[in-house]
Amino acid sequence: MTVSTPHVEAEHVPVAGPYRRMVKLFFANKLAVTGLIILALLLVFCFLGPLVHPTDQIHTQLADANLAPGTKGHPLGTDDVGRDVLGRLMIGGQTSLEIGIAAGLLATLIGTVWGAIAGYAGGWLDTVMMRVVDAGIAIPALFLLLVSATIFRPTVPVQIVIIGCVSWLVPARLVRAEALSLRSRDFVQAMKAMGGGHGRAVFRHIIPNAIGTVVVNATFQVADAILLIAYVSFLGLGVAPPATDWGAMLSKGISYTYDGYWWLIFPAGIAIVLVVSAFNCIGDGLRDSFEVRLQGR
Predict the structure, then answer these.
(1) pLDDT of residue 258
(2) Predicted model pTM
(3) What's the CA gap between 134 and 121, in Å, rounded?
(4) Are 270 and 34 in contact (CB under 8 A)?
(5) What domains appear along the chain, each with residue ranges and CATH number?
(6) How far apart are CA 91 and CA 79, in angstroms?
(7) pLDDT tens, 37-59?
(8) Which of 56, 154, 196, 246 is the most buried (most CB within 10 A)?
(9) Taking a C-beta distance cutoff of 8 angstroms, is the pair 250, 265 a contact?
């Protein structure tokens, strides 16, 4: 006797797409999430904090110079000319973050376009373009910044342009390596066979498919730009007073190291460490996430 077995349809289990898995993996990375939280808190502190704790950062009050934290309504004390350190930390953070983020994105943009064109073109054009990159990498970026700071007045837009123009070399090499691999892919060859131009190949196919490398490197470029502006300001070649940034605050505070005025040093130093660490943690998390997205293709 034949026993019929009821037909049971297989339950359809939705499979998460690569982007959903990428986001899930990023938020599963505790260091990346911590970095994102720290960055968000610093942005709120620097850009919304002055609305809650407004201070006069232009006029000096020598009678209130070097007050200890908590004195006369100054939670972090005052500096050598009586300006509130907490308010100055917020204003300095705005400058550091604006320059760092804008310069990092500018460097990434220049490097991405340069590297994509070089890798896609290949041949003598690739050789010439990458020799320019090699020559630029051989010159220390800090040296170029110091020379530029002595030639141009160090305003925020000038600092952004200078740092962006000396920091694009590493992204160019990374994107060029991706472009060398992508230019031989089937979708690029099919586009060329259908009459697509070189510009379309670079900007519609090469760069979008190298976006993982671009995004990850952008976070590290921002962190490096913040450190560069801190270096230049620490050497006294940053934005002109009364404007300031964390590097300039740290440089001025060092002069009072032996007088016990720790509040002139530690807040700015801790802020620099926190923001650079936050961007590095976010970059590491994005790198791991994009690797999973590429595996899911």
Answers:
(1) 72
(2) 0.86
(3) 18
(4) no
(5) 19-53+84-295 (1.10.3720.10)
(6) 14
(7) 999 999 999 999 999 988 888 88
(8) 246
(9) yes
